[in-house]
Design goal:
5 helices; single chain
């Protein structure tokens, strides 16, 4: 006989309801967050490449917080993008 605790049932029910009602919203939030991070790091990269920006002071203030992620972000921004992959995502691609 298998014994199932109320905690396991509660956790399973909570995950099921999350999947039904909030999973698509959660995916949209993650996608929007990634877009904003890409835009932020693109602005930082433009600053590093020498394009004149009016936010030099603020860029220097934020730089110590993002130094660890700059290499990962540089590789992400410079990777090749397949157009068929973008078309597969649908009309929500900006």
């Amino acid at each position: 006989m298998v014994r199932v605790s109320w905690q396991e049932i509660s956790r399973a029910l909570r995950e099921l309801l999350f999947g039904f009602f909030l999973y698509s919203l959660y995916q949209q939030v993650l996608h929007t967050k990634a877009k904003y991070e890409d835009m932020f790091y693109a602005l930082l990269m433009a600053e590093f490449l020498g394009f004149p920006m009016t936010t030099n002071y603020y860029t220097l203030r934020l730089l110590p917080f993002v130094v660890e992620e700059l290499e990962r972000t540089r590789l992400k921004l410079l990777r090749e993008v397949d157009l068929l992959e973008l078309l597969h995502e649908g009309p929500g691609v900006h």
